Amino acid sequence: MVRQYGFLVDMRGCYGCKTCSMACKSENATPTGVLWRRVREFTFDDPNGMAFISMSCNHCDDPQCMKVCPADTYSKRPDGIVVQDHDKCIGCRMCIMACPYNAPVFDPVEGKTSKCNLCAERLDEGLKPRCVESCPAGVLQFGDIDELRKRYSADLSRIETHYKLPDHNISHPNIVIIPAGDKE
Amino acid sequence: MKNISDIRLNRRTLLKGLGVIGLASISPCAFSLVSEDKKPLPRVRLKLSDYQTFRSTCAMECLHCNLTAYVYQGELKKIEASKDFNVKCCLRGMSRTKWVYHKQRVKTPLLRVGEKGEGKFRPISWDEALDLIEKNIRDTIATHGNKGMMLSTHAGNMDSIKNDMGKAFFDYLGGSTKQAGSLCCSAVTAAMMPIVGLRYADMRDTIADSRYILCWGNNPAVTMQAYFKEYIKAQANGARLVVIDPRFNETAAKADEWVSIIPGTDTALALGMIKIIMDEQLYDVDFLRQHTGAVYLVDAQKKQMREKPEDAESYLVYDTLTQSTVRHDAPGIVPALTKAELPANAEYTTVFELIRTESQQWDLAKVEAETDVPAATVLRLAREYASSKPAMIVQNMSGAQRTEFGTYVAAGQFYLALLTGNMGKAGGGVCDAGGVRQMIKINPPLPAPKEVQKIPPIPVSKVGDWIVNERPHPINFWWIMTMGVLTQLPNTNMVKKALKKVPFVVVADNLMTSTTLYADLVLPVTTIFEDVSLMAGVRSHYVQLMEKAVEPVGEAKPDYWIFARLAERFGFGEVFNQPIEHYIENCLEGTGITIEQLRKGPIKPVDAPWIPFKDGIFRTPTRKAHFFVEEWQKKDFAPIVTYMQVKESPKGSPELAQKYPLMAVQRKLARSVHSSHGMNEWILEVQRNQPNIMIHPDDAASRNIRHGEWAIAFNNRGEHRALAVVTRQIKRGVVSLDNGWWEQQGGSSSHVTNDLTEVLGTGHSCNSTLVDVRAEA
After folding, report:
1. CATH fold group of domain B110-183+440-527+555-591
2. This protein's superkingdom (chain B) (predicted)?
3. Rounded distance, CA B349 to CA B368, Å?
């Protein structure tokens, strides 16, 4: 039984093609300007380097969106997926402000916010999340976070310092990041 | 938690009349969609079983990944990589749903009403359009002859039917003016054909087996994106990945080393490496003796010696066993390779010694001075490349060969692979571009006509210039298909003049592209999911059937439908108007592959892994690889790879460089393939939506160019506006410009690129371009 689903991003093999982002967009038919999965790009001049982190909602242990939502739209499924009841959303954008990862996205046309639900319906049908399925290099994986963490020990603090990511202690995200420089 | 399955019970009822999106059931975050009466409707997700699926393939000049279209009630809902295919498609393939239903889709034939370039058209019927075309063809032939008709096709759709049908149609009319050479890789063809006897032979199946990968002037993380997993696999197995490029590219970011080089000097680097390989005897003597023409004898007049002048294959070698000159293919011989093995007073030498003579002048100091690659790096590169086996050079139609003497660049890379005995082995060799045509013979879709006039073609990079100057003759009628001439041909302003000069320009395209703005008549053609076709080309390792998934948008027709209707008007209809399956069968005849088999999925016609020139068997008449290229000699160029300074460079044109001191190189982006996909709203959202110009901080500072602000690259040919990226990821003195931006987006870098024809291969010299850059006022 899955306790908590999560993602794994292996930066070593990611070359920033953004297919995951497009697959998410195509699968969920999100409106213009609404990208649930985005690829952060990092460029360094000294020494030269480029790095990419593909990220959507991290389905945190302590979801800040859920904490602040005044309309009670967010809930956490038994498998740890944070889902939103979109009908209830009042478009206040509190969740966007609270989320350290900018996972929820506001659509000004609709006046509401939406976010990645880890392709919950696909999982229920025995399919993989579309982003994971689409990755040409297989660097994006998902599964039970305990299993993912067992496979790769990720020192999030070190990665957070290097890539200026928020402190994982805020929300305890369910993501494993293997940094680009590591030749493990 | 909301119970999703409760909602699912009613999904069948919900599907009726509601908005649907592509997924598996009701969303827990049920979307809203505003209906005509402004009331939001809940959206329902589709199950996989609700879809019909069809297969096709990306058809422009990329890797031809197999795609599966998911269709619901006649509408294309989403595209995924086909599950049984060997690679996964990229974001461009997926975004094709938006291409099919793009708001700029051409839906009916359009006749120009404004000035050319204004983009003002009125819709007309297909009958009117065909009447007009027929009249203009008849008038042109009457007034200008067949040479007054020009046909431009290229890489916008590389399926096995449409471009061939276009060429055949004009040939059945008696002939037309065509383009000579190609923008992408003529230099590779000019090097590869005489050296190894085959073009489009690639090593992509065994990249992961390589121990040393040298990406030379190209960026496979973007241009071989689907296969880049193989490079990562090779690295995981311990391979060293090295990138030679003026720009620190996406591949360099993954590589073990980036070697920055002055554009246009790659041959000097290759010769420097060859010198070290020769001096240190790191070459493969046995391979050179058995499988190459390095041992052929050359006389004092620098002509290859033959046993019988009339027998082209009777090359002579010096047999060290019998100490006599014999045919190269005589049994039981050990041909001399080096001068030391020849008689002391011999009046001839070997091809190998000519290569030595040519490379000897390229000592480390001279290579460093010319290329700006540090001497120690050159030495290490040569030693590492020659001693790591297998080692692969990734050429992949590189930007390095898109220079004035690009043929020598490509040939220099083959020299390195041959000298070190890397050819024909898994994980070794040269990875060019490749497809099924290196494995099996694919026929043309229809027979060639009996009589076609011989009409001199126009070098592809000179299309604008020559049409404007009526060289070699005036053009009265121009048919453009599968090619964005305005964004891809160099010297855009000259191309605009040409499009304005030609009295009747027909552009067949799916979208209102940059080129359609300058058309007299625009014809709506189908996209890959709207007709049936075959992909058995030079970029896909698989033969693939392209199925019709949805009805064409508007009145769009396949290109082959248009040629069939025109052929009927000119009296050879039956050649062109057969069912499409007839032409597919023609293509497949003799291959053993049938349409029925293809309906089940793509077919690779040989066992994997495919290794071209396996065991050193080449496709030249002698089955040996040739270093000495007589074709070049006939054109009064050195028959052995030699370095020549490109003219449009600070060293080659010091005066011009006073005005335009920066060398511009072109960059391909993950957002488009040339200009295809360039205006897809999903791509613009997920990838970049504005062009960049990469410039070194030192070059930027002296020009007051600031990071993130608009800058303009310019020269005497034109201007290209882009956002400045001030970075040390580009060599000082060099700027990187983006290829493929549409005129409606501000225009591509072709506004400034050189339209010089690459001398040995009739190709493109876009990377021999000088510009200056100014900050936008």
Report:
1. Rossmann fold (3.40.50)
2. Bacteria
3. 30
C-beta of residue B462 within 8 angstroms of C-beta of residue B453: no
The token pair at B25 is: 């059931």
Which residues 150-169 on chain A approach chain B with CB closer than 8 angstroms? none
Task: Give yes or no for a contact between B261 and B246, defined as CB atoms under 8 angstroms apart.
Answer: yes
What distance in Å separates residue A141's CA from the closest CA in chain B?
A: 15
Give CA–CA dist B707/A157, Å, rounded: 30
Cβ contact (<8 Å) for A22 and B80? no
Cβ count within 10 A of residue B348: 18
- Residue B556 to residue B570: CA distance in whole angstroms: 22
B146 touching A, CB under 8 A?
Answer: no
Chain segment B275-303, per-residue pLDDT in tens: 999 999 999 999 999 999 999 999 999 99
Is B334 within 8 Å of chain A by CB?
A: no
Q: Which of A134, A11, A88 is nearest to B80 (CA)?
A: A134
pLDDT in tens, A144-177: 999 999 988 777 888 999 999 999 999 999 999 9
Kindly calculate the radius of gyration of chain A based on its CA atoms and give it in whole angstroms. 16
Compute how many other C-beta atoms are within 10 angstroms of the C-beta atom of residue A89: 23
Closest CA to B556 of B507, B516, B505, B510: B510
Query: If we measure between CA atoms, which residue out of B290, B309, B289, B291 comes closest to residue B299?
Result: B309
ipTM attached to this prediction? 0.95
List the 47-76 stretch of B: residues with Cβ below 8 A of A.
Answer: 47-48
Q: Is A135 on the interface with B (CB under 8 A)?
A: yes
| Contact (CB, 8 A) for B445 and B161 | yes
Q: Which CATH architecture group holds B654-775?
A: Beta Barrel (2.40)
Could you tell me the fold of the domain covering B189-432+618-627? Dimethylsulfoxide Reductase; domain 2 (3.40.228)
How many CB pairs below 8 A link A and B? 157
**A134 contacts chain B (CB < 8 A):** yes
CA distance B487 to B673: 12
Within 10 A of B672 (CB to CB), how many other CB atoms are there? 24
Which of B1, B24, B27 is opposite residue A127, by nearest beta carbon? Answer: B24
Mutate to test the interface with A, among B50, B91, B677 (most CBs of A within 10 A): B91
CA distance B761 to B757: 8
C-alpha span between B768 and B753 (Å, rounded): 8
pTM attached to this predicted model = 0.95
